[in-house]
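COURSE: Structural Biology Practicum
ASSIGNMENT: Worksheet 4, Part C
STUDENT ID: 0417
INSTRUCTIONS: Below are two proteins. For each, the amino acid sequence is given first, followed by its structure token string. Answer the questions at the end about the second protein only.

PROTEIN I
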Amino acid sequence: MALYLHDWLLYQLEYDNSLKWSSAESALTRGVGTCQAYESAYSKLLTAVGIINSETRDTYDGHTWNAVKLDGKWYQVDCTWDDTSDNFYGDLDQRHLYFCITDELMAIAHKGHAKIYTADGYATRLTSLKDNYFVHNGKADEWAAKYADRIQQHFDAKENKFSIDADNQSFPPSISGIQNGIVAFAMNLREWKTTNAKADLAANSIVAMQSGYKWISRFDFYATWKEPASYTIRYHGSDAAPAVARTTRVVVGTPTATLTSSALGFSCGPMAFAGWKAHRDCDDAWFVIDAAGNGRWAKLDGGALSEGRSFYRYVDGGKVSGTAPSGRVDFYATWIENKEYA
């Protein structure tokens, strides 16, 4: 509803360059008004439908706009600056550039707002772009996707910090800075990974003035690499035997060969090795086969397996990859009568 009222108001209104008409009444009856008229009219419309809102008055820049509370969060909305017929910047819809943005992004367009939202007692603080127009309609993710291959190259190189020039270098900072802030938010929602590794990515939009009227737009990225889930396999010569010193570390998702009973020096007289029973410590469960032949982890019931289940036996030196999410797995050697000695 906040978006509908925003769009409806923009279709009714034109900016009053004479600066004569500045009330909600002039906006709604005459169809003209200053920024105060835009703010007041939008406030009345929002209040009429039960949407909490507040005025953001920038006395430093002589401007005013609305703060709107949606889904429990405050957003900044500048109907005046959205009211344009310009379409100079590719697929960027300029009539929604200032709809539901953060305080930081609004301060790019209105410099005085930086002093307002950082002051003690400021009541409508926002840092999220969850309900931003371009985030909601998927455009932000579409823009972010255009950088994916370039980001991935740095990820594959396992870089912790890197920068990428923005594609909208030719846009003025008041446009590119806001657009790229929205794109950075979409980038941070994506999952980034490379072979056997994932990372939390923090993307920041940077617009910095150079000499004269020149500026640069870029994204700075900071990657925090996550350690892959892993576990340790310990080996026992029997159910009652203690674990030996040699172990196998398994990274979840990476097939890893287990040690063999002969390499570990295990034997049981004339008995023949019959495979490894597996127990994991994270939930005190054994890997079993059910009546339908499906493998699963299950706890013992009164010290025994439930009816229809049997212990799965891993082959000697076989490969494992996803036996446990973390912690430790104990392999217990099992033995059967060796028919060669029968």
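PROTEIN II
(use this one for the questions)
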Amino acid sequence: MLPIFSGAALAFLGLAPQTLLDQVFSLLPTSLSGEQGGQRCALNNWRLTGHPGWEWEKEVAVVTGGCSGIGKEVVLGLVANGVRVAILDVQPLPKDLEAIDAVHYWACDISSPAAVKAAADEIRSTLGNPSILINNAGMAFKDTILDASPDRIQKIVSVNLVALWWTTREFLPAMITANKGHIFTVASMASYVAMPMSAHYAATKSGALSFHEALRSEIKHMYKAPGVLTTAVHPMWVKTDMTAPHAEDIERHHGPMMMASDIANPIVKQVLDRRGGHLLIPGSGGLASGFRGFPSWLQEAILDRIGKNTAAFKGS
């Protein structure tokens, strides 16, 4: 009976309307998201409660890409709770953020280790050692593997992935010394499932997940600093300046996009809860984290569905 069932399921995945598929997937177990019960405890360095020792008016957060999109919403959420924020961004500081005393800005290309070091030195001398690092800055392009230019490939890898080393190397040592800190890696659902025309983006986001996992293990076992927390963030489609050029196509083929605040609010809550872990947003998207463990036929059927929808996008 299994081959008949599998064949019927495969036909259903291939022929059913997208709206019906979305309803079915939303009913599947979400325990794969890593946010249930004991798994949540494990990702919080085996603590059931938040870690002690945090005083928000005394904390300093560094937010990369904090001038727009998710990063800007995170900045607003943190300062609303008393945290001072240092923004690293190549975009100019918006007027509304400029008016907030707790917001500080450094023009910085995070793909340059020298630029990150210079900004970090100024942050430390001006504000003290940051206890929160939110690696949020990122970029995306829509290219096939054959069409992507060397410059675009190098830029997206440098900003989305390699820059994680430069910022973390600057701010992690003081966190280890204090045995207190929280490092966020804003990845994507593309960490788990790659789509056509986004091989470079998906590669950086799966790499970001690997970076996060190795970082968590090194902090715990090599540096013996269980008070330094790590959180990986995996959002689905989000309406930002970065996705704006393709928003119409995305919503036509993949459904409504989330707003930046839908991602930023859980990040800020995770900071305030003093817990490490994984944030898969929306929660129903947690199914994607177990994608590689699905039967091959199911993986291929899902990828075929995604591929057909993505292939309908207009070229940039």
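ANSWER KEY EXCERPT:
Q1: The chain has a mean pLDDT of 83.
Q2: The CA atoms of residues 190 and 202 lie 5 Å apart.
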